[in-house]
Amino acid sequence: MKAMTYHEPGRRTWEEVPDPQLTSPTDAIVRVDAVTICGTDLHILKGDVPAVEPGRVLGHEAVGTVVAAGSAVTGVEQGDRVLVSCITACGRCRYCRTGMYGQCLGGGGWILGHRIDGTQAEYVRVPYADTSTHLLPEAVTDEAALMLADILPTSYEVGVLNGRVRPGDTVVVVGAGPIGLAAITTARLFTPGHIIAVDPAATRLEAAKRLGADLLVGSGDDPEAAVAELTGGLGADVAIEAVGIPETFELCTRLVRPGAHLANVGVHGAPVTLHLEDLWIRNLTITTGLVDTYSTPALLDMVAAGRLDPTVFVTHRYALHDMEAAYQTFSDPAGSGALKVVLSRDA
C-alpha cells in the first residue's frame, strides 16, 4: 500500500510500505476512506517529537471501513464505517477506567503516527478496536466525522472544559488555526459574553469571525490593550493557548485577570519560561493536557442532531494519493488559506 512516511526532520515520502496485519486479537484493520493532516504532524516533521522514528507512517485521524477484525473484537465488524480516534485506549488500565485515555498504560494513548504506524495510508491497524473506534451513523458524513478524530475533542476538552468557560465569560483564544477555531466553536456552547481571537493572519481572523469571535486582534494590534479595553482593565476570564510557542503562552499569562484560567492546548517544542515572580500572586489556574477523547460520543451526537457542523473547518479537498500536494497546502496557511485539508479515497 501507499503511505506518508517520516524519515527525518524535514523529509517525508508518499511511498510503498507493507500492508498492516492483525497482530493482536483486539486489533482491527481499517481501510482509510478519509484522512486529514494535523499541526502535530508538522511538529513531527520539524523534529519537535523525537519519539517518532524514521520509517513511521504519519497521521492519527481517519474515517474508514473495517476490513478485518481480531477474534476478541466484538464492537465492530467487517464492513462497518468507523471513526478512528487519535487516542487509542486499552479500556482496562487505571487511567482508562477514569476516562484519561490519553494516558493509557496498556499500550494506548497517542500512538498512531507516533509510536506505531498511523492513518495517512491506504490501510491502518487500529489496536484495541472496540475502545478506539466509533461506529458512525449514516447521517454523519465522512468529512464531518473526520473533524471529531482530533481537533474538536482536543479544543473542547483541553481548551474549553479545562479552561472552565462559563456563561458571560470573556474568552481569549490565542492562535486561530484549526484548534483555535474549534475552541471558538465549542466555547460558544457555553454562551460566553465575549470571544476574542488573536492571530497575525487576516484569513484566519476572518474564519474566526465567521465562527463566532466578537473581537479580532491581528498583526500590528496590541492584544493586551484590546483585552484591557473590552474588560475595563480586568483581563480575560479564560485564555486558550492554541499555538505552542513561548511567546504565545507568555502572552496568555498577560491577557488574563487574577483568578482566571489559562488552558494550554498548543504542542510546545521548546522550553517556556513560567514567570512565577509575577504570577504567584494572581491566583491563576494553568492547565495542560493531551486530549482524552472522552467527549467524542457527545460531540458525535451533536453532529448527528444538526447542532454542530464540523465541515466549516474544511477548506481544501484532495484525493488520497495527492498527499504531497495536501501537505504543501497545509504547511503554508498564510499563502493557501488552509484550515483543514481532507484527503478522500473516492475524491
TrEMBL record:
Protein name: Zinc-dependent alcohol dehydrogenase family protein
Region (Disordered): 1-20
Superkingdom, natural source: Bacteria
PROSITE patterns: ADH_ZINC (PS00059)
Record-stated family: Belongs to the zinc-containing alcohol dehydrogenase family.
Cofactor: Zn(2+)
UniProt keywords, alphabetically: Metal-binding, Oxidoreductase, Zinc
Gene3D superfamilies listed in its UniProt record: Medium-chain alcohol dehydrogenases, catalytic domain (3.90.180.10), NAD(P)-binding Rossmann-like Domain (3.40.50.720)
Domain Enoyl reductase (ER) span(s) in chain numbering: 10-343
CDD domains: FDH_like_ADH2
Native source organism of the sequence: Nonomuraea harbinensis
